[in-house]
Amino acid sequence: MQEENVNESLQTEEDIDKLVQVRMDKLKELQEKGKNPFEVTKYDRTHTSKDVKENFDELNEKDVVVAGRIMGKRIMGKASFCHIQDMYGRLQCYISINDLGEEAYTEFKTYDIGDIIGVKGFVFKTRTEEISIHAKEVKLLTKSLRPLPEKYHGLKDVDLRYRQRYVDMIMNPEVKDTFITRSAIIKELRRILDEKGYLEVETPILTTVATGDAARPFITHHNTLNLDMYLRIAPELNLKRIIAGGIEKVYEIGRNFRNEGMDIKHNPEFTNIELYAAYEDYNDMMDIAEEIISTIARNVLGTMQINYQGVDIDLTPGWKRLPMIEAIKNETGIDFNTIKTDDEARALAKEKGLEVDPIKNTRGHIINMFFEEFVEDTLIQPTFIIDYPVEVSPLTKRKPSDPTLVERFELFIGGREYGNAYSELNDPIDQYERFVKQAEAKALGDEEAGGMDEDFVNCLEIGLPPTGGLGIGLDRLIMLLTNSYSIRDILFFPTMKPLSKD
Description:
Blueprint: H1 13-32, H2 49-54, H3 56-59, E1 63-76, E2 79-86, E3 89-96, H4 97-100, H5 102-109, E4 116-125, E5 131-142, H6 158-163, H7 165-171, H8 173-195, E6 199-200, E7 206-207, E8 218-222, E9 227-231, H9 236-244, E10 249-257, E11 269-278, H10 282-301, E12 305-308, E13 311-314, E14 320-323, H11 324-332, H12 342-351, H13 363-374, E15 383-389, E16 398-399, E17 402-413, E18 416-423, H14 428-443, H15 454-462, E19 467-473, H16 474-482
Parallel strand pairs: 3-5, 6-10, 14-15
Antiparallel strand pairs: 1-2, 1-4, 2-3, 4-5, 7-9, 8-9, 10-11, 11-19, 12-13, 15-17, 16-17, 17-18, 18-19
Helix pairs in contact: 7-8, 8-10, 9-15, 11-13, 12-13, 14-15
């Protein structure tokens, strides 16, 4: 069947305005006849397009009631074909004057691409073996007043696709499939953790202290309390408060907010999962991170062998675990175990052409800079980078064998970071001192430095058991598992600059 868009090949705003007016006139005519489609409150369908196609042998020649948006129409005198689209796909319908009667058939011929209809009829196959519905009744459920974009030209504006996601999903079924997969990934994640005895919890979005990670926060104002507040950077400290209170395994899937740059990997608001388990450490968190991601791939995608943007990646468990200093040495030949002072580290950074931040200029910060500059992009297969400098990990327990390092890892796949985990710091004296250093950095102009959280120090003084914690950026993980190039491709409504009114 050759689909037609009833001359709605849109080129200009003037063209669109004319088509909108034609549709408005059709709506008015229906309303004058007492057939206002917007007065329909419910439509009792019995099957979806998926049901009909998957159960054809059982439903053949039986009556069903389906509904969907008209995506194609072909008028052939006294009989017509149309394709309707629901959540699961498209389904052909055969419409004839003999079945509907002249008045209803004439009305059907006035329906437009984009209108939403209900169809009652029996299931059959056409001569070309296409599963279809032979309509006995057709009902207009919603009149589309604005035409859909012309198929081959109106969808190339990527910016418009993100701004009008509802149109993007209508015209590009694979986009809708990505969001269905996103939901399946999160559902599987919950299943894994629930079965392991983790309790899902919720913690505040609005906070009085910008802490939990190093990031620039969004600031808002609470009118009743006359108090400046922050949108949370991370739920970490509240989740550890819950662990201290005696719930020994918790997780939260929720939104975090960071007032920073935007690119293909970053959106100002994003979805994260953080989980914490008492009496565990970062080695246990490596085990569970590996299990979560490989299990989701197996159960949702059906394979642990994936391809991301042309690169083959194997998610089969048994991922490499590599200390940061060793990873730097492997790529550059430089061994930071032999570089003991800040001055030596700064001189080495300048020698390698790295710009030394006047605030973040310690040996630990420079080790991290070397890793980001020379190593991160090379980590294609899943790799845990472990044992970070204490300066870049203010909430992490020190490594007993080397107090300049902490028991922390980040997970890298395809040259990107996907997870961050600690053996959580539970020493209130050490934590207080690190908060002080953060506050000092903030006073010197570091907008990403966190503030002092005296109540959290108080919580640690009450007592936090040895705890392992893990955070995974779900948006980035979903990008990986759906082979999506940009974070905007897996967010229904990514942050966009408003269009100019000029």
